[in-house]
Each structure stands twice: as structure tokens, then as C-alpha cells.
Amino acid sequence: MSGPGFTWVTPILCVDDLPASLAYYTAQLGFELAWSWGEDQAFDSEAHPTFACVCRGDVSVFLSERHQGVPGAWMSLNVGSQADLDALHAEYVASGARIVEPPAVRVWGMREMWVEDLDGNVFRMGCPLG
């Protein structure tokens, strides 16, 4: 490696309606709201936010209302074990999350499920086999 490395990455997903997306990410996907912001307002204001950060475990995701990217992005998220993936699947079934593909073994050596947000952004959630 040449030059400085990176210490973390925070994806930015484009969403159509940020308050609706925040409700989905917290109620159905189990993320927590870290902060929200909108033009001409302070952080965590009660006004309609246009940009926010949600977190689950060590993963943070920025959500941007109709800005910064296009809906339909894909992200790959790893969990610690197949048991964790099964528990996450059961949680998402119970919460009514949009499960596109249930957990299955993939030819690339992963067991994954695919979950979608309200705007067609897809999370590939899985763990290596073995």
C-alpha cells in the first residue's frame, strides 16, 4: 500500500421521504437514529430533516433526501455467524421488513439474505460459510 489508508466508510443512500425512511430504518431494520439535519435548521430539530445518520452495531449509514446519489444502491453487510444471520432474518420477518431473498447459500461462498428499504436500496447481509 502506498500513501495513507482509510479508517472507515459511511455510505450515503438517496431516499425519497426522509421521515418515512427513518421510521422504516428504526422500526423495521433495527437501526438507531444518531442525528438528523435539514437546511437552515440545527441538528436534531423537530423540523422536516433532509439528511440523517442511522446506526446499528458498528455500521453507520447516511440517508439523504432526494440528493447525493440515486435510489437502488447495494451494500454488503457482514454478520458474525450463520446463527446471527438466522436471528436477523427472524427479527426482520417479525418486524415486516422487505426481505427480497431469505437466507441462502450463494455460489461465492457466503450465506446471505437480501433486504430492501423503501427506495429500493438493497442490503446484502451475510456471513462466510464454514
List keywords for this structure.
130 residues; alpha/beta; 2,3-Dihydroxybiphenyl 1,2-Dioxygenase, domain 1; 2 domains; four-stranded mixed sheet; 2 helices; 8 strands; 18% helix; 38% strand; globular
> How many individual helices?
2
Largest sheet: 4 strands, mixed
**Would you tell me which CATH topology of the largest domain applies?**
2,3-Dihydroxybiphenyl 1,2-Dioxygenase, domain 1
Low-confidence stretches: none
Shape category: globular
Residues in helix, % = 10-25%
User: How large a portion of the residues is in β-strands, by DSSP E?
Assistant: 35-45%
Q: Could you state the CATH homologous superfamily of the largest domain? A: 2,3-Dihydroxybiphenyl 1,2-Dioxygenase, domain 1
**Total count of domains:** 2
How many β strands by DSSP?
Answer: 8
The secondary structure category is alpha/beta
Spatial order of the strands in the main sheet? 1-4-3-2
CATH architecture of the largest domain: Roll
**What is the CATH domain class of the largest domain?**
Alpha Beta
Radius of gyration: 16 Å
Task: Estimate the mean pLDDT confidence.
Answer: 92
